Amino acid sequence: MTKLNVHQRLAAVMADVTYIQKEFKQGMKYTITSHDKVTAKVRPALLAAGIVYYPVRCEHTHNGNRAECGMTIRFVNIDEPTDFFDVQTFGYGVDTSDKGPGKAMSYAVKYALLKALGLETGDNADNDSVDHSKADPANKPSDNEVIAAMRAINDCGTMDDLQHCYSNMYRAAQHVAQNPKVIEAKDVRKSEIEHRSE
In sequence order, which residues have a C-beta less than 8 Å from that of residue 97 and are 6 or more positions away? Predict the structure, then answer.
């Protein structure tokens, strides 16, 4: 191994680790490939091939309860530390307390490993039946936000009040204003006000 460069070593790992089985996690409705499962599978093979990996760059921002992380993971030949390659990666982590940044970092590292090693997980992104939406799924409003928005809409007594309320809501919290329940509440309230004024 000492004469192999980092790419030759990586090729040996790719030949050794070819597939990672997805798993069910308690409380989830679908199978996932977790950070721990990926790490447990690839780390021994990387170490046996003489490759270590670690982050060399991490940029972090917070968007409400969502942590966003851009990272560079470096894979290094342990016998020749100047022989390495970098993988750019990113991750999101949504959490109501302080675990969002750790979740984002774990997600980013997991995908750096999966993509650097070309690993199969059973996912088929080409056959996903999800329509494109401009709304960010990680920016989903909480139940309390939706309830508060619907109450504000139902408190509107005139069309001017309703228009002002919804416009302010859209500017301040677009992800709440675009929620289907909030839109339905707005349309119902509009109909009620119009019917009352006839």
Answer: none
Question: Structurally, how many domains does the chain consist of?
Answer: 2
Among 167, 107, 174, 166, residue whose Cα is nearest residue 139 = 174
Domain boundary, last residue among 127, 151, 173 = 127
Domain that holds residue 48: 6-127
Q: How far apart are CA 52 and CA 98, in angstroms?
A: 28
**91 close to 84: Cβ distance less than 8 angstroms:** no
- Three-state SS at 8: helix
- CATH code of 57's domain: 3.30.390
Per the prediction, the chain carries an average pLDDT of 84
How far is it, in rounded angstroms, from Cα 149 to Cα 147?
5
Both 147 and 114 in one domain: the answer is: no
pLDDT digits (tens, 9 = 90+) for 177-198: 888 899 999 989 888 888 886 6
Do residues 150 and 179 both lie within one domain?
A: yes
* Closest to 197 in 3D by CA, of 157, 167, 153: 157
**What is residue 132's DSSP assignment?**
P
CA 142-93-59 angle, 5° bins: 130
Shared-domain flag, residues 63 and 114: yes
Given the structure tokens 């970092």, which residue do they identify? 105
Q: Which backbone phi and psi does 136 adopt, to 5 degrees?
A: -80, 115
